[in-house]
UniProtKB/TrEMBL annotation:
This is Hydrolase. PANTHER family: BLL8046 PROTEIN (PTHR43434:SF16), PHOSPHOGLYCOLATE PHOSPHATASE (PTHR43434). The keyword Ubl conjugation does not apply. It comes from the Bacteria. GO terms for biological process: DNA repair. One of its GO terms (cellular component) is cytosol. GO terms for molecular function: phosphoglycolate phosphatase activity. InterPro entries: HAD-like_hydrolase_sf, HAD-like_sf, HAD-SF_hydro_IA, HAD_2, HAD_sf, PGP-like_dom2. Keywords: Hydrolase. Signal peptide: none annotated. It comes from Chroogloeocystis siderophila 5.2 s.c.1. It holds the Pfam family HAD_2. NCBIfam families: HAD-SF-IA-v1, HAD-SF-IA-v3.
Amino acid sequence: MVQAVILDVDGTLVLSNDAHAQSWVDAFTEYGYHISFEQVRPLIGMGGDQVIPRMVPGLNKEEGDGKKISERRKELIIEKYGPKLEAAPGARELVQRMKQQGIKLIIASSATSQELEVLLKAAKVDDLLDEATTSSDAEASKPEPDIVEAALRKLEMQPDAILMLGDTPYDIQAASAAGVSVIALRCGGFEDPQLEGAKAIYDHPADLLAHYDESLLSKH
């Protein structure tokens, strides 16, 4: 019986993965580091603590240029790209359906709380979701399990009563390490082989909603 669902936001409820990649490119460029969109796009779904040292060895999110780049990227998402983002097809309707079923919902995102506010508004679910774990609740971002484990602590439930809804290999890795099964969505831009380990894969929230009664969620 599924009693709760942990929700990723970027690429899952809002079509923001390309915007995140471009914001990294822009932020690195402003500080003199030339990173291509193609280099950083496969890493979207990880937090800045993971992305920055992979792009420029020697930099980190906590100090120097790495910290400045991280802060600038956040500004770009909030001020430039966030207001232009579109909800994933069916995002609001799926969240409403799960709530109607009595499933408890909690967000697990590598975003900061400020970014999350913008992203949830873009996804048109800001009035439906109020419980979240963000980057401030975890020492390390996905693919490390910290954020999922923080969500489990808030839910106070066993992992086998919970599903996670995500769109990247890093969601699957993080959830699996925490003992949580994943339904993956293709709307984040990753191919099926990259989503290996998910219990099921759908195109987007609307596709999952169309198959809701035969999905893992229907066990509730």
